[in-house]
Specification:
Elements lengths: L2 H15 L4 H12 L4 E2 H8 L3 H13 L3 E6 L2 E8 L3 H25 L6 H32 L3 H9 L13 E2 L2 H4 L1
Parallel strand pairs: 2-4
Antiparallel strand pairs: 1-3, 2-3
Helix pairs in contact: 1-2, 2-4, 3-4, 5-6
């Protein structure tokens, strides 16, 4: 197995350990490794799985804002690419899961007055650590969003200074130029 295939397989396992399907992780990895958009057919062939499975998992990545569906002029097929801000979308999704967990803890904490002190302290700890960490991550995501939305002239200036360049965000379905699709 070559390095590319090993990477795709390992990303599948990583996704699986994070609550996604292995195929979703493999689709993500395939898109990460490609500079051009990929069709469902191309993804299915490359990954050796059914087109139906790829379609389901591509839709899951779309729903989470990690991938985008794009079109090619004159072609009825849909193509898939990673969203420009895919990593921030992954983090936002995880924050949503952590917030759901926190809501459950808060609901129980509100009714835990009769619980032993150790139990109440655990709930208080979870509430405090969640608030602290969530606030910092949300602050970082806001800062990243502001940075990514700067005008192109500022982005070019930052890239000349040796700092990482930000990219603009795109939402929904995009139509790609012929140059990008080849």
């Amino acid at each position: 197995m070559n390095e590319r295939n090993t990477f795709i397989e390992r990303m599948g396992l990583a996704a699986e350990s994070d609550g996604l399907s292995r195929i979703a992780g493999r689709v993500f990895a395939a898109l990460l490794l490609e500079s051009d958009p990929l069709s469902l057919d191309a993804l299915a062939e490359q990954l050796g799985v059914s087109k139906a499975s790829i379609s389901t998992e591509a839709r899951r990545l779309l729903d989470r804002g990690v991938a985008e569906r794009v079109t090619k002029p004159g072609d009825r097929r849909d193509y898939y690419v990673l969203a420009n801000d895919f990593f921030a979308q992954i983090v936002r999704f995880r924050l949503g899961r952590w917030s759901a967990f926190h809501r459950l803890v808060t609901e129980m904490q509100d009714t835990a007055a009769d619980e032993p002190r150790a139990v109440r302290e655990r709930f208080a700890y979870l509430d405090e650590v969640h608030g602290f960490i969530l606030a910092r991550i949300e602050e970082a995501l806001d800062e990243w969003r502001d940075r990514a939305e700067r005008p192109a002239a500022q982005v070019r200036e930052r890239s000349r200074s040796g700092r990482p360049r930000s990219t603009p965000k795109h939402g929904g379905k995009r139509q790609l130029s012929r140059e990008r699709l080849g």
